[in-house]
Automatic annotation (TrEMBL):
Keywords: Oxidoreductase
Active site: E242
Protein name: Aldehyde dehydrogenase family protein
Annotated InterPro entries: Ald_DH/histidinol_DH, Ald_DH_C, Ald_DH_CS_CYS, Ald_DH_CS_GLU, Ald_DH_N, Aldehyde_DH_dom, LUC3-like
Biased composition (Basic and acidic residues): 28-37
Alphabetized Pfam families for the sequence: Aldedh
Length: 468
């Protein structure tokens, strides 16, 4: 499975199934098996049977196998990257599909290496108490289409490390990437420990409501996250929900527009803007507004957009037609309301592929739809402000809080402003950079629960106190 053709052949349905198309061309690249509730029941039974033995192996042996799985990913990384590019659309290069495949291996190795030692919480004359974490049991995971393989590894890597078994359902738009990743790592994992089932939304709903799952993990929209929470309520599984965001960035007076422009650009346009924690609305002090807009436009002009498998592309198409329509509609609505499209807009709507150019829009009011609705695509509204207190209020006004950023040459002032923003992560002079040891999660409508590092391991475990 170390080349693209073998990897695709290993996971695609030989006949029937759901067609999967390249968002750059519309060409069918393969068909994903369509699994149903009977398949889910078989996967649950196999995972339940495998879990006690898997947990009994202990952390050291499970970590060894996760490292072996990461080695297997490395051997097939180029094939996996090409499949991601053809199915999801992101370019091979830059922060694209090769970056994603490499991230899978890095996150698996971090899950394997992160210590989670028992914690002595009481040791005095009254007695002793130790807090430790055990496997939760069976984990159900439902993934998105924007970073399909990477986010799958964020879900199953820590879960397996803690002794759980996992049944996953990938997005209907990008099932082959996740099926391929499972085929790669299952070369070294025991049978029944990790199962991926591709199917429609009904399969995801059945997974969320299934009483066998002790933990549900979901990354995706706030609307779907609420539906999962409701569907699972009768069973009381633990939940980790990483939901939508509309991340603000605030550029403070004194920042250097030329120095921050490229980082601002990639904060907003990584994966063609299709990232939950991407920069989605930018507030710039009025003294710097025009310079920041000009610097961003210059960066956009030198970033080629094209098919993901082209070595020259730095931006790819949107993954599906629905997302293209959302972005296109928001930009046209902004234009009609008097917004100025500085660069971008005006896609070739009749051409094959879901290409929408990197777009900067200025002159919008704070309540414009492009500002207050998550566009999840390559269209960035840029708003001038004069009063810092007012702009912090605007940043906090929405019922989401995944990420945010503050941009300044004064680190102390930037940290003071960052502490006032309601978001799970606030970056300073960068946006959206994640590290496998740094906890990540949202507040408000962006969900709850943490991933990554020690806190991510705890989230897929059950705390137990032993007191004497």
């Amino acid at each position: 499975m170390e080349n693209y053709e073998n990897l695709l052949a290993a996971v695609a349905a030989p006949e029937g199934g759901r067609p999967v198309t390249d968002p750059a061309t519309g060409e069918e690249i393969g068909r994903a098996p369509e699994r149903g509730t009977d398949d889910l029941e078989r996967a649950v039974a196999a995972a339940r049977k495998a879990q006690p033995t898997w947990e009994a192996l202990g952390h050291q042996e499970r970590s060894r196998l996760l490292n072996a799985a990461a080695d297997a990913v490395d051997r097939s990384a180029e094939a996996l990257a090409h499949l991601i590019s053809r199915e999801q659309g992101k370019p091979l290069n830059g922060p694209g599909s090769r970056f994603e495949a490499g991230g899978v291996a890095a996150w698996l190795r971090t899950a394997a290496a992160t210590p989670l030692e028992p914690e002595r919480v009481l040791d005095d004359g009254s007695g002793q108490a130790t807090l430790r974490y055990r496997a939760v049991g069976l984990v159900g995971a439902i993934g998105p289409w924007n970073w399909p393989a990477l986010i799958a590894s964020w879900q199953f890597g820590p879960a397996l490390r803690m002794g759980n078994t996992v049944v996953m359902k990938p997005s209907e738009d990008t099932p082959l990437s996740v099926l391929a990743l499972a085929a790669i790592v299952n070369q070294v994992l025991p049978e029944g420990v990790l199962t991926v089932l591709s199917g429609d939304g009904g399969l995801g709903a059945a997974l969320a409501a299934h009483p066998a799952f002790d933990k549900i993990m979901f990354t995706g929209s706030t609307r779907t996250g609420k539906a999962i929470a409701a569907a699972s309520a009768d069973n009381l599984p633990r939940l980790t929900l990483e939901l939508g965001g509309n991340d603000p960035g605030i550029v403070l007076p004194g920042a250097d527009p030329a120095a921050i422009a490229e980082d601002l650009f990639w904060g907003a346009f990584i994966n063609t803007g299709q990232t939950c924690a991407a920069l989605k609305r930018l507030y710039v002090h009025h003294t710097l507004h025009d310079d920041v807009v000009e610097a961003l436009a210059e960066v956009a002009a030198r970033m080629p957009m094209g098919p993901g498998v082209s070595e020259e592309s730095m931006l790819g198409p949107l993954t599906n037609a629905a997302q293209f329509r959302i972005v296109d509609g928001l930009v046209e609505q902004a234009r009609a309301a008097g917004g100025r499209v500085v660069t971008g807009g005006d896609p070739d709507r009749g051409a094959p592929g879901h290409f929408y150019p990197a777009t900067l829009v200025t002159g919008l009011p704070a309540d414009a739809p492009l500002v207050v609705e998550e566009q999840f695509g390559p269209a960035l509204p840029i708003l001038a402000y004069t009063d810092l207190d007012a702009v912090v209020d605007q940043a906090n006004a929405l019922d989401v809080g995944l990420g945010a950023s503050v941009w300044s040459s004064d680190a102390e002032h930037a940290e003071e402003v960052a502490a006032r923003i309601e978001a799970g992560t606030v970056w300073i002079n960068k946006h959206g950079t994640l590290h496998p040891m740094v906890p990540f999660g949202g507040v408000k409508g962006s969900g709850y629960g943490l991933e990554f590092g020690v806190e991510g391991l705890k989230a897929v475990g059950v705390p137990q106190v032993i007191a004497a």
